[in-house]
Amino acid sequence: MIKKYYLLNGLLLILAIVSFFAWYQAKSNDKTMQPAVMVDAFATEIESIQFNELGQKRAEIQTTKLWHFTGGDSALLTAPRLTLYSADRKAPWVVSAKMGKTFNGAQKIDLIDDVVIHQSSSTNNTDTLITTSLLHIFPKTQLATTDQLVTLVQAGVKITSIGMNAYLDQKHVTLLSQTRGFYDPTKALNKSASF
């Protein structure tokens, strides 16, 4: 009878220890399975304005929907529209896409699907339209870069390339590879192309 008592107590003690470790392991796994990045804010019809050191507009970001994430101060944007202003007050660059994602606030912005970069004609420049499927923009330096197919259109000029580095504030574009161009002098403006 005493042996059965010790045997039963021993089995209960082992069962308690195994149950504790199973519970502890399940609790630990729950923590590791939780996503490291979670949505902490959601907003609609957003407009954000960035200013330079002189108090002049440097950039405006508009979006129909915004999801902000805890990790990396990043956000997902629906139908983003970015307006970049130059220091010499040339016509601004307007960049739009179907989707976008910001990193570290808005230090870097990735624009995805049907990306359109446009600068209207003014006394300093011709109307310029650039399209691609993916674009990385750094608003502070106004650098726009991609490794995807790019199409650049100005009056009488159409150029395609794989990849581009565009310094929008300086209106300087470097096309990276497989560049092809078409020039129609009948549609070209009197002034020379700016790129």
Plain-language structure description:
The protein has one helix spanning 2-33, and strands spanning 39-51, 57-69, 74-78, 81-84, 93-96, 99-103, 108-119, 128-138, 143-154, 157-167, 172-183. The protein is α+β, with helices and mostly antiparallel strands and 195 residues long. It has two domains: 1-34; 39-183, lipopolysaccharide transport protein A fold, CATH 2.60.450.10. The protein has a six-stranded antiparallel barrel. Strand 9 and strand 10 (157-167) form a beta hairpin. The longest helix has 32 residues, at 2-33. The N and C termini lie far apart (98 Å). The mean pLDDT is 80.
Short description:
This protein is of the alpha+beta class.
Structure characteristics:
11 strands, alpha+beta, 1 helix, 195 residues, 2 domains, 52% strand
CATH superfamily of the largest domain: Lipopolysaccharide (LPS) transport protein A like domain
> Class of the largest domain in CATH?
Mainly Beta
Mean pLDDT figure: 80
Question: What's the CATH topology label of the largest domain?
Answer: lipopolysaccharide transport protein A fold
Name the overall outline: globular
Question: Approximately how much beta-strand content do the residues carry?
Answer: over 45%
Give the number of DSSP strands. 11
Taken together, the total number of domains comes to 2
**How much helix, percentage-wise, in residues?**
10-25%
Which regions have little confidence, pLDDT < 50, spanning 5+ residues?
Answer: none
Structural class: alpha+beta
Strand order, largest beta sheet = 2-3-6-7-5-4
